[in-house]
């Protein structure tokens, strides 16, 4: 064979090999796309950091895992921490419990006069004076109506607020300083008033705001006050002559919890955490509540390795959870008739009103969201036609890029899984 012809044939063979190789690579790429799992496609999103993302989707009836990634990785939960706090208190106290704020005449009542102080015992109710659901009755008007009913027109003493129910600082030390002046970063108090906020700004002394309002309403109603106001661990000074005048009662825990989850209310969640500590016989501090909540779930058989609980709302960037921890709590609460109903329905309510809207999962997923800078999380359930949970869903995304793209990736993941 002539050398020139051989060289020509070699070139042709090389070109053919290149074409064949390209076809093979194209075939492999196409097949890999068709064969990629929902979780693989999810992690391909440029807004997802694979090392800082965890996913766990589980069939509640069989225990089968439909999607899993980094299920044991400790990650920042943001507001899905509220599902942990609320689940603990709901199991401990039930849905029908209520917050109580007691009003006492701290001294004898003679004729039209309280010969002593009017004492308000802070009961940790986060709904006092709030205009968001569930709205409570105006406690000042209730006090006035009670005094009028008893013919009392004079308080020959002080108006005092007892704040001894809660101990420790109103805000955890780990909360970012930039959050503390915002309405969402206000502290939790034994006596809260108007959600401890003035517009978009936090109020540091809700007790003072309440006392100013109450005294003004009393005086404008013709009730004389001879003394001043006092806040602190005051308690009853005349237990033999003291009279309970009023028990101001909040709506049920269930309704307060629903409002907390729908609106992602940090104040409500922080008061739930302190209330949980008190319900377990501990002091009413955030620190005690956090320690008791972690201990509680550990004793319930929930895997707590890698979990750190600092607060009840998730505002602290020192909180850490794992997808396994969150999934186990969701599993344990899946037969509770109230719990899933607290969470917004996808495409319908609250923080999920635009999520999965118009898709096959619209109104068939109920989840709590968690959002902070660089964070987007989801924890909740896939529901059946009767709105009963069928699957638990945990998606924790830290170090995200564009939030909208991360949200879209989470939507696509769920649509792929439940197709």
Describe what is shown at a glance.
This protein is an alpha/beta fold. The chain has helices spanning 3-35, 38-43, 81-93, 139-149, 206-220, 253-263, 266-279, 286-299, 323-333, 403-417; strands spanning 53-59, 65-69, 98-106, 109-110, 113-114, 117-121, 154-155, 159-162, 197-198, 201-202, 224-225, 229-232, 243-252, 365-372, 375-383, 389-398.
Per DSSP E runs of 2 or more residues, the count of β-strands stands at 16
Report the radius of gyration as a whole number of Å.
29 Å
**Into how many domains do the coordinates divide?**
2
Anisotropy-based shape: elongated
Beta-strand content: 15-25%
Spell out the helices and strands N to C: HHEEHEEEEHEEEEHEEEHHHHEEEH
Name given to the CATH homologous superfamily of the largest domain: DD-peptidase/beta-lactamase superfamily
Number of helices: 10
Task: Measure the end-to-end span.
Answer: 62 Å
Major sheet characteristics: 5 strands, antiparallel
Major beta sheet, strand line-up = 2-1-16-15-14
Mean pLDDT: 93
Which blocks of ≥5 consecutive residues have pLDDT under 50? 3-12, 26-33
CATH class of the largest domain: Alpha Beta
The CATH topology of the largest domain turns out to be Beta-lactamase
Please name the CATH architecture of the largest domain.
3-Layer(aba) Sandwich
Label the structural class. Answer: alpha/beta
Helix content: 25-40%
Outline the structure in words.
There is one protein chain. By secondary structure, the chain is α/β, with parallel strands linked by helices. It has two domains: 41-94 and 256-417, 3-Layer(aba) Sandwich (Beta-lactamase), CATH 3.40.710.10; 98-251, D-tyrosyl-trna(Tyr) Deacylase, Chain: A, CATH 3.50.80.20. Helix content is 34%, strand content 20%. The protein is built from ten helices and 16 strands. The strands form four sheets. It has a five-stranded antiparallel sheet, with helices on both faces. Strands 12-8-6-3-13 form a five-stranded mixed sheet. It has a four-stranded mixed sheet with strand order 4-5-7-11, with helices on one face. α3 runs antiparallel to α6 and α7 crosses α8 (286-299). It is elongated, with a radius of gyration of 29 Å. The N and C termini lie far apart (62 Å).
């Amino acid at each position: 064979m002539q050398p020139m012809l051989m060289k020509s044939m070699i070139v042709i063979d090389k070109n053919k090999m290149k074409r064949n190789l390209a076809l093979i690579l194209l075939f492999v790429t196409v097949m890999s796309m068709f064969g990629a799992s929902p979780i693989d496609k999810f992690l391909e999103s440029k807004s997802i950091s694979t090392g800082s993302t965890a996913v766990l989707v589980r069939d509640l009836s069989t225990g089968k895992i439909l999607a899993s990634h980094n299920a044991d990785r400790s990650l920042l939960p943001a507001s899905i921490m509220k599902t942990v706090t609320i689940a603990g208190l709901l199991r401990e106290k039930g849905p029908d419990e209520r917050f109580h704020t007691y009003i006492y005449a701290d001294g004898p009542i003679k004729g039209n006069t309280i010969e002593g102080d009017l004492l308000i015992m802070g009961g940790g109710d986060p709904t006092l004076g709030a205009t968001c659901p569930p709205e409570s009755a105006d406690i000042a008007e209730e006090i006035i109506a009670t005094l009028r009913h008893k013919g009392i027109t004079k308080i020959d003493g002080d108006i005092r607020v007892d704040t001894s129910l809660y101990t420790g600082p109103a805000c955890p030390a780990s909360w970012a300083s930039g959050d503390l002046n915002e309405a969402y970063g206000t502290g939790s108090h034994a006596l809260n008033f108007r959600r401890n906020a003035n517009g978009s700004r936090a109020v540091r002394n809700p007790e003072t705001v309440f006392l100013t309002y109450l005294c003004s309403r009393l005086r404008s109603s013709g009730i004389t006050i001879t003394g001043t106001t006092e806040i602190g661990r005051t308690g009853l000074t005349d237990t033999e002559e003291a009279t309970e005048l009023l028990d101001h009662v909040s709506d049920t825990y269930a309704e307060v919890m629903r409002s907390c989850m729908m609106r992602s209310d940090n104040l409500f969640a922080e008061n739930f955490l302190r209330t949980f500590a008190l319900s377990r016989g501990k002091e009413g501090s955030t620190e005690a509540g956090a320690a008791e909540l972690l201990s509680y779930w550990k004793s319930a058989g929930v895997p707590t390795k890698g979990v750190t609980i600092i607060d009840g709302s998730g505002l602290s960037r020192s909180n850490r959870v794992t997808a396994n921890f969150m999934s186990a709590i969701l599993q344990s609460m899946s037969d509770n008739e109230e719990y899933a109903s607290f969470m917004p329905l996808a495409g319908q309510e609250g923080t999920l009103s635009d999520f999965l809207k118009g898709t096959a999962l619209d109104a068939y997923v109920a989840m709590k969201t968690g959002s902070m800078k660089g964070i987007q999380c989801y924890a909740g359930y896939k529901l059946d036609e009767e709105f009963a949970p069928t699957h638990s869903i945990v998606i924790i995304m830290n170090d995200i890029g564009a939030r909208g793209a991360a949200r879209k990736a989470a939507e696509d993941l769920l649509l792929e899984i439940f197709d």
